[in-house]
Design a protein that fits this description.
By secondary structure, the chain is an alpha/beta fold. It is built from seven helices and twelve strands. The strands form three sheets. It has an eight-stranded mixed β-sheet with strand order 5-4-3-6-7-9-8-10. Helix 1 runs parallel beside helix 2. The longest helix has 12 residues. The protein is globular and about 45 Å long. The relative contact order is 0.15.
Length: 235
Amino acid sequence: MRSPFFRFKQFTIWHDRCAMKVGTDGVLLGAWVSLRQARNVLDIGTGSGLIALMIAQRCPAQVTGIDIDSDAIGQAGENALASPWSGRIRFCQADAGAFQGGVYDTIVSNPPYFRERVHCPDGQRNAARHTESLTFECLLDAVARLMSEDGSFSVILPAEAGERFITLAAERHLYLLRRTYVHTKPSASPKRVLMAFVRTIQACETTHLTFEESPKVYSREYIGLVGDFYLNINA
């Protein structure tokens, strides 16, 4: 049975009332997103609040998380209250397309991306996993509306969805600045891609991150990225 909570080094995430549980994708994005100029951060589709709390740990910004799922928002709020940064994090039940929370210099999202015709019977989990609840187009429209002129937007997606997402972003004058392909092992094709977008065309930096150097041996790059969060990452 899956544990109802996941303990990190500085906070704990309870996720038993959330459709999507704590997973590697969220941790990767929360650790990878650049926060050098972050003062006002928006997490779209926050779920349990995992990424919002990771960002609060990493920088002193004000962090807002939104989600359409009322149960997730309730639990995210509880997770924030139990953390050291409760005064800087707030959560709102809202659809990204209708949200009117102001302008943000940093926006992040671990969006739904499954497009199968056959969905799981749990409607809450479907909403978190499938693009019908938040299409790429709707997500990017919201980012274009809510991001400041000098802001950035970071996202994690399946690697095969990356090029389509880049095209859709460019149609909204959001341009790829940074990209990291994520591999499970050195010989494997990338499973995920982390991407950061800005409003001006610039040279894009592309890198690669591998989880394991060999079976059950994490790479130095992976440990360096997530080591401030996971317990026993060197095990």
